[in-house]
């Protein structure tokens, strides 16, 4: 399964972004994880094809009126075995 490591920049901490991300990923049956970073960004590991990833990020921004995604950096992509869960990391 295509696994993408993303860095999300914007108003993404302290606004329930990880909660909404986890809920949406579970609804869409996507594997991966989400984690707050010290620099104010959020790391997102997502198992989805490129179009699903794009649709997921758009739905994620629409799901939370308090969050704002200013930039998404694709840090890495690789094919990995499917992970059937989505975790919030601390």
Describe this structure in words.
Helix 1 crosses helix 2. 28% of the residues lie in helices and 42% in strands. By secondary structure, it is of the alpha+beta class. The model has no long low-confidence stretch (mean pLDDT 95). The protein is built from two helices and five strands. The protein has one domain: Alpha-Beta Plaits, CATH 3.30.70. Strands 4-1-3-2-5 form a five-stranded mixed beta sheet, covered by helices on one side. Pfam families: Acylphosphatase (PF00708). It is an enzyme of class 3 (hydrolase). Keywords: Hydrolase. InterPro entries: Acylphosphatase (IPR020456), Acylphosphatase-like_dom (IPR001792), Acylphosphatase-like_dom_sf (IPR036046), Acylphosphatase_CS (IPR017968). Belongs to the acylphosphatase family.
Query: What is the CATH architecture term?
Result: 2-Layer Sandwich
Name the poorly predicted regions: none
Domains, number: 1
CATH class: Alpha Beta
**CA-atom Rg in angstroms:** 12 Å
Put simply, the count of helices is 2
Q: Can you count the beta strands? A: 5
Keywords: Hydrolase
Catalytic activity: an acyl phosphate + H2O = a carboxylate + phosphate + H(+)
Domain Acylphosphatase-like: 3-90
Enzyme class: hydrolase
């Amino acid at each position: 399964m295509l696994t993408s490591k993303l860095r999300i920049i914007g108003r993404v901490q302290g606004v329930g972004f990880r909660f909404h991300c986890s809920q949406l990923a579970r609804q869409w049956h996507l594997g991966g994880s989400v984690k707050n970073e010290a620099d104010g960004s959020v790391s997102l590991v997502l198992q989805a094809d490129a179009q699903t990833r794009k649709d997921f990020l758009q739905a994620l921004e629409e799901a939370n009126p308090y969050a704002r995604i200013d930039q998404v950096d694709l840090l890495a992509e690789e094919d990995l075995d499917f992970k059937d869960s989505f975790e919030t990391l601390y």
